[in-house]
What does this fold into?
Amino acid sequence: MENFVFHAPTEIYFGKGQIENLSKILGNYGKNVLLTYGGGSIKKNGLYDKVYEVLKDFNIVELAGVEPNPRIGTVRKGIELCRENNIDVILAVGGGSTIDCSKVVAAGYYYEGDAWDLVKDSSKITKALPLVTVLTLAATGSEMNKGAVISNPETNEKLGTTAKAMAPRASILDPEYTYTLPTIQTAAGTADIMSHVLENYFKVTETAFLQDKISEGILKTCIKYCPIALKEPSNYEARANLMWASSLALNGLCGSGKAGSWTCHPIEHELSAFYDITHGVGLAIVTPRWMRYILSEKTVDKFVDYAVNVWDLEMEEDKFALANKAIDKTERFFAECGIPMNLGKLGIDDSLLEKMSHAVVVHRDLQSAYVPLTEEDVLNILKMCL
Ligand code: NZQ
Ligand code: ZN
It folds into this structure.
């Protein structure tokens, strides 16, 4: 196992009715609150009204309409609102997009230059306003980590930035708030959770047995509960397990002690930078193709572990046959959850594949990945996704 520093400072309030703690939590930071949210789902499901009821003694200013794949322009708007209104604390109510946007607003408040600088260079983030979140979608893990991903439509860039200061101080995780999710978001969110785990499961470090066992548990949780949540959207047990899986998959627990860079996320981020697609959908499409592409004599034993420990497949003599069965299972699982499994189904053709492949290697170091990939490899994988 490699050396690591584990730091997960977010206080988690998990379960039904935890929103009642919101005024106590925010009260630690002040009375002036910037409430951030997306396109209106929280108004439809009553969460918006609940927040106002719980925060009746606070001064609330709103940043509404945070886009899925949040944009730098919205971040800039949020920073202005914070400065104009002497905001003490940011309250993000929504999914990863709303939380990510809020993180960079929080950091941008203290930065004199343009907020895009903070996305391109996280070392410029030194301080941030306190951030509290109410999560409504089990997916990104943003509710319990230090990362944010922001899009710049002018340059077709979608980039991640990470800083300790941006970690939420507290997050309210009430699984009931995910009952109203459209089925595609439940499925895409689960694909995202699984991808966070898989990116770390398939890594060069082979001695982090404990992290791999935790990862297998999270994957099995997703495989068990996503179909239940799709069939019975108000199944608390399913929603609760998916929600906690979201946080644990990307709070450092599975990735600490394992060296190397990720692969499917860098590729997907270019897809959503150029085509503004749903992150988890892109990952579900890319992941099984990437698996097929990197399956080799060198990687097959890890795929055998994956087949037996995650998909409960019977051990067999032909390791490659077993590995391929596990990859088939992965692809079929996403398809059965209702995810369109080809780029063509999203209206994406081959016209920008080369541009995206180039952008992947410019933005990310794929040479330290589990299986190092060149620009040509990325292009081959993207072609397999068409
Ligand atoms: O905007 P509203 O109206 O709220 O609707 C949203 C949005 O349309 C809807 N939704 C969310 N909760 C709902 C709901 N609809 C009904 N009921 C609810 N309870 O779902 C749609 C998607 O929301 P979004 O926040 O965009 O989804 P997600 O949580 O998947 O976030 C995706 C973003 O996070 C980034 C992605 O790249 C993408 O930009 N990521 C962030 C990471 C991080 N910070 O650590 C890591 C991830 O790998 C990822 O890259
Ligand atoms: Zn992700």
Notes: The chain has a mean pLDDT of 97.
